[in-house]
Specification:
228 residues; alpha/beta; Rossmann fold; Arc Repressor Mutant, subunit A; 2 domains; five-stranded parallel beta sheet; four-stranded antiparallel beta sheet; 8 helices; 12 strands; globular
Length: 228
């Protein structure tokens, strides 16, 4: 069985060596880079299954690397590693294409759980049989993460697509908030719960051209996606 390949970008030599060796001891294949300017070239040559990117890097930060990756691969799982704790910084990571984040310092067990959860989620999304879902005036291309209205195509992030997919699978029904958090984020922490609110607002904005599509909040329960 082929090993899972990880692109790991980290400029702290001591931490980088520990993480790399720990992952390799658990049978992952790790390509490590310590300078942001070299990351995209390594990505192209390695063709990893998942990327773990520090945000603060010399010459090119993790946000920029993620944007470069997203231009050529819309579905690559990306985890940001950050010492930053401001909500805006973390939300920026999701905006540029990140799927998850880890705050320094972190445990190897937490990193591995997040890697495996994200890989599992990506595999589930890519194996969906129905590739295009009709939603009122829109067409939702699930594997391509695209929401189309006439000739206008909006590229969705991994989490936006995953959330819209869940709502689409439960049209005119109520989905439990905790179930959504566990499926899309992997846990139902307070911070992820706040992120979910932000993502629901974004999807409402994306779908606003069709008033027959309504994502209604059911207080204390979850969401009801009304599709006429």
């Amino acid at each position: 069985m082929a090993k899972t390949k990880i692109l790991y970008v980290e400029d702290e030599p001591f931490l980088g060596r520990i993480v790399k060796e720990s992952l390799e001891s658990r049978d992952y294949e790790v390509a490590m880079v310590n300078d942001g300017k070299d990351a995209f070239q390594q990505f192209q040559s390695t063709q990893p299954d998942i990327c773990v990117l520090d945000i603060m890097l010399p010459h090119k930060d993790g946000y920029s690397i993620a944007q470069d990756i997203r231009k050529v691969n819309a579905t690559m799982p990306i985890i940001f590693v950050t010492a930053k704790t401001q909500t805006n910084d973390l939300l920026k990571g999701f905006e540029v294409g990140g799927n998850d984040y880890l705050k320094k310092p972190f445990s190897m067990e937490e990193l591995i759980v997040r890697v495996n959860n994200l890989l599992k989620l990506t595999k589930q999304t890519s194996s969906v049989k129905t590739e295009i879902v009709k939603l009122g005036k829109y067409e939702f291309n699930i594997p391509r993460y695209e929401l189309k209205q006439n000739d206008n195509i909006r590229k969705l992030s991994h989490r936006e697509a995953s959330l819209l997919q869940i709502l689409s699978e439960h049209k005119n029904a109520t989905v439990n908030r905790k179930d959504v958090l566990l499926h899309v984020w992997g846990d139902d922490s307070f911070f992820n719960s706040r992120n979910l609110d932000v993502y629901i607002s974004k999807l409402r904005d994306y779908l606003k051209e069709d008033p027959k599509l309504q994502i209604n909040t059911i207080k204390g329960v979850g969401y009801h996606f009304s599709v006429e």
